[in-house]
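User: I'm writing a short report section on ligand binding and want a predicted complex to refer to. Could you take this sequence and flavin-adenine dinucleotide and write out the structure as tokens? A short remark afterwards would be nice.
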Amino acid sequence: MKTPRTPGVLSGKDLESDLVLDVDAVVIGTGAGGSIALRELARAGCNVVALEEGSDHLPEDFDQREDHMLPELFAEGGGRMTEDLAITVLQGRGVGGSTVHNTNLCKRTPTEILDRWAQKHAVLGCSVAEMEPSFAAIERDLHVTRIDDDDINANNDALRRGVKTLGWRGGNLSHNRDGCARSGFCELGCAYNGKNNARKSVLPVALSAGARIYCDVRALRVLHDGIRVSGIEARAANGRSVKIRARVVVLAASAVGSALLALQSGIHDPHYQLGQKLHIHPGAAIAGYFDDRNIDGWRGIPQSYECTEHLDFAEGSDRRVWITTAFAHPIGAATMTPGFGAAHMGAMRRYRHLVALTAVVHDETEGVVSIGDAGRPVLRYEMTPGDRAQMLKGVRAAAELLLAAGATEVAVPGVPPRIVRTRAELGRIDEDVVRPHGMPLTAVHPMGTLRMGEDPFTSVVKSTGEHHHLRGLFVADGSLFPSSLGGPPQISIYAFALHISRHIVAAARA
Ligand SMILES: Cc1cc2nc3c(=O)[nH]c(=O)nc-3n(C[C@H](O)[C@H](O)[C@H](O)COP(=O)(O)OP(=O)(O)OC[C@H]3O[C@@H](n4cnc5c(N)ncnc54)[C@H](O)[C@@H]3O)c2cc1C
Ligand code: SF4
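Assistant: Sure. The structure tokens for the complex follow:
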């Protein structure tokens, strides 16, 4: 095998023969959840490997080109969508998972959500006090700090101005960065190694403690006898077969990947829970043009300010919209900019004057992950009328914020586009814009599908992360969450993976 670029990270493209390994535990996926499970198992002295479907990328690989990086770093080349093609679902694929190209926003799980999980979903041990040590440890590991006022770029400053002018609730976000050069390319991978993501801040500790990562290897099936797991069957990118025999299997392939793998493995599912109750935080982008000044929104830290005026976490609340910025590089911006031909080109010529916001719904819609052709995941997700009403409220609020900040024109990329120049025209953003396919939507936070809880009728794994019916099978990623969060999920995922890791370690040692 070729000498790896990073000791301990071996590529399935270089396997010269089929691979069979005997270990204590195997972790599937190396993103927020998988990295922590791998690290904790290795630190505890277990013989552990991780399998990762994507490749390993180092800072020198990130060339800041959308045409190279989007297909390289994202699942299905960035083209993953819901079954009805209404919502693009972006997810990472590579060592470090979605943390490699995320935008570094860090928030703990809201207290109201933790309370709901305890009371309604029978999750044990998830009170604020019980979770505090895990949140604190993760924030230390990732060096989470609040963004300084001086680091708010022009795009985010427009949101801040809008919030202050309207007297709405908002503030600076916290991020996990050290050595950030403020290049603005977070979503294409960081060439400056400024992100304290799983690849930089968690996996090296796991490797030093003896873990190995096989990247470019896709897990195909959990091996089991219906009572307990015995390992994983996988395939390397060069076609070699990989078999890992293990007492413990940890699914951390994301809310989509873990559900798909569980479904493909014929795991006992008497109450039809596998793959159900998918949440994604659907989001719409709204463009504001400031024709009297250059914004150059691609410069500086991409997402540093938020508006929480229309967000609370009570179940069934009529305030379930989180608004932040959503600046995109030219290809991404072109796909969201309304119009065709000369009209589209005219809009793109105003790129320097563009401020982009996103309205994200803290969704109650429950989608489903199932198995499609050639083992691809199918994401069935049709927004409920309640969530559509929230989306409309969010899009209007974002337009109002942009006008308050001084935008000369606001464009909602609906079909047809809605153009608004004054507050009196906000009514042009009508219900039709949020009908299915009424406007392009994007989601970057899949959650749910293998939920935790003590009731096997409504959940898939126990509060310990272990499957209700299959011993040795654990889940340690965003699949665990019984509801959506209403904000960025990475800290919650890292922290819950850490929280349950003692149970994973105990099972691997048994
Ligand atoms: C563009 C973008 C921006 C984001 N910004 C933020 C942000 O600022 N703050 C925030 O909190 N969150 C953000 N997120 C979301 C956050 O990064 C994810 O919620 C989080 O990383 C999910 O963690 P996870 O462990 O569930 O899965 P992931 O981190 O997605 O990791 C799953 C890994 O499993 C691998 N995998 C899948 N199937 C298999 C298989 N069969 N075999 C082997 N490997 C497999 C995948 O390749 C992937 O690497 C963003 C996401 C995106 C896409
Ligand atoms: S803004 Fe900072 S963290 Fe983001 S890619 Fe640039 S240097 Fe890296």
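A remark for your report: The mean pLDDT is 96. The domain at 9-58+71-95+106-142+197-270+445-509 is CATH 3.50.50.60 (FAD/NAD(P)-binding domain).
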